[in-house]
């Protein structure tokens, strides 16, 4: 029986030695895994730095384009100023010729207000110079309008409009 006790003690001692060896190996594996955690943190930092470098490169490219645009804008501004200096200076109110076609002047004004199908009702030959009252009919959004435009020195200074449906009770 003593042999059996010795065998059990040796077996228990062997299991303890085996457990200690496994525990040491497990600690080495944990140490290696902690190194992998540090590696993951390094990888995240590397990705962040790469993104920052890409933004910096984009920013540098954008800055270069902005500088190029600014230089081109300055060059064009200088060219326009040179052209303005070369043009003959005209005193205000002088050099303007009264329009030769007052009907076309009224038509352009009404088209700018969104009208179409414009008919001039006034005989423009009866106007005294480039000033007077010009009656017309015109259509806007399918509604017929009648009115007149007041001209002064070849410019439309006022217009009066009445929708056709407003004249019926």
Describe, in short, the structure shown.
With 169 residues, the chain is of the alpha+beta class. Helix content is 57%, strand content 20%.
Main attributes?
169 residues; 2 helices; 4-stranded antiparallel sheet; alpha+beta
Can you put this structure into words, describing what you see?
By secondary structure, the chain is α+β, with helices and mostly antiparallel strands. It has two domains: 1-89; 102-167. The chain has two helices and four strands; from the N terminus they run ααββββ. A four-stranded antiparallel β-sheet has the order 1-2-3-4, with helices on one face. The longest helix has 85 residues, at 2-86.
Ordered list of secondary-structure elements with their pairings:
Blueprint: H1 2-86, H2 102-112, E1 116-120, E2 132-140, E3 143-152, E4 155-163
Antiparallel strand pairs: 1-2, 2-3, 3-4
Q: Which whole number gives the mean pLDDT?
A: 83
Q: N-to-C SSE series?
A: HHEEEE
Please tell me the total number of domains: 2
Strand order of the largest sheet: 1-2-3-4
Shape: elongated
Low-confidence stretches: none
Q: How many helical stretches?
A: 2
Estimated structural class: alpha+beta
The radius of gyration is 47 Å
Largest sheet: number of strands, sense, barrel closure: 4 strands, antiparallel
Helical residue percent band: 55-70%
């Amino acid at each position: 029986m003593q042999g059996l006790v010795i065998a059990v003690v040796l077996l228990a001692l062997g299991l303890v030695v085996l457990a200690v060896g496994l525990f040491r190996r497990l600690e080495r594996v944990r140490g290696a895994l902690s190194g992998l955690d540090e590696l993951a943190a390094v990888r995240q930092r590397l990705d962040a730095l790469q993104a920052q470098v890409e933004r910096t490169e984009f920013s540098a490219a954008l800055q270069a384009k902005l500088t190029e645009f600014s230089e081109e804008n300055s060059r064009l501004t200088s060219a326009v100023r040179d052209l303005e200096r070369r043009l003959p200076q005209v005193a205000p109110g002088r050099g303007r010729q009264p329009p030769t076609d007052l009907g076309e002047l009224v038509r352009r004004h009404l088209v700018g207000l969104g009208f179409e199908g414009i008919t001039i009702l006034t005989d423009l030959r009866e106007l005294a110079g480039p000033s007077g009252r010009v009656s017309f009919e015109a259509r806007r959004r399918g509604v017929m309008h009648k009115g007149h435009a007041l001209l002064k020195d070849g410019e439309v200074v006022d217009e009066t409009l009445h929708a056709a449906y407003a004249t019926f009770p």
